[in-house]
Structures are given as C-alpha cells and as structure tokens.
Amino acid sequence: MKIEYKVNAPVSTDQFVELLKASNLAERRPVDDRVCMAGMLANSNLTVTAWWGGKLVGIARSVTDFHYACYLSDLAVHADYQKCGVGRQLQVLTQRQLGAHCKLILIAAPAANDYYPHVGYQSNPRCWVLDRDQCISR
Predict the structure, then answer these.
(1) Which Gene3D superfamilies match (predicted)?
(2) Which of 41, 70, 78, 98 lies at a CB distance of 3.0 to 4.6 Å from 22, suitable for a disulfide?
(3) pLDDT computed for residue 138 by the predictor
(4) Exposure letters 53-71 (e unless 16+ CB within 10 A, then b)
(5) Inter-axis angle of helices 13-22 and 34-42, to 10 degrees?
C-alpha cells in the first residue's frame, strides 16, 4: 500500500486532533478546544492530506487568496511517517493549487526550524503576532 494524497478531502475534527497529537504540533495547538479545532478545519480554504489506508497521516492546512499569499498554518506529519517525504509532497501539492506568483508563508515550529531552509524556504524576520488576549494600543 502507498500513501494517497488528496486535495480538500473531508477531515473530521477527531482525525485532525489525533494527527496533531501524533506529530509534534499538539503542544502548540488548542487540541482540547473542539470548537476551535472544528473551526480551524471548516475555515481553511485549502487542505492537502496524506492517507495510509483510511488513516490520516499528514495534512497541509492553509488559508489563501490563491494569487498572492498562502499561509500554511499547519504542516503536520504523523511521527511514524516523518522523514519519508510526506511533508515535502504535501507542500508540493499545496503549491500546485496556487497561482504562479503565490507565495507560501509559514511560521515554523521550533523543532522544525532547521527543516525549512533544506527544502527551499527563506527566513524572514518580519513576522509579528498579536495574541487574542492582547489589545492593539491606540
């Protein structure tokens, strides 16, 4: 059996949470907040998934305009399938869905920071984050 890749295939909240727990992303995602996790899936406008049989083993979950910018908000691969090219293929297939000039943008998990230069990303120090519990000052 080989890994099957799908674009915008349905993924249940349970499948998504299980995958995040089996990768290293659960520690930085609100996996105990089912409403949030369901909303993350429902409001993504591009997902590319990797399946081994009926088991979700990888996901690239993005928000994009398909022309200028694509924010790859989750790239998760089950620990048992890491270092087999699954993450790379998820990114390749994500790029194929985008317009010719659309940039792929992501924030790396600390443990994956050294992975991205290896596959062609350039570091950009201009990312800023405003957490929900912070207010924009006037």
Answers:
(1) 3.40.630.30
(2) 78
(3) 65
(4) eeebbbbbbbebeeeeebb
(5) 100
8 Å CB contact between 13 and 34: yes
**Max CA-CA distance within the chain?**
57
pLDDT computed for residue 127 by the predictor:
83
Q: What is the DSSP letter of 68?
A: S
Q: What is the pTM of this model?
A: 0.90
Say which DSSP state 102 is in.
P
| CA–CA dist 21, 121 (Å, integer) | 25
Architecture per CATH, 4-118: 3-Layer(aba) Sandwich (3.40)
Sheet of 103-105, strand order: 4-7, 46-52, 55-64, 69-77, 103-105
> In the chain, what are the domain boundaries?
4-118
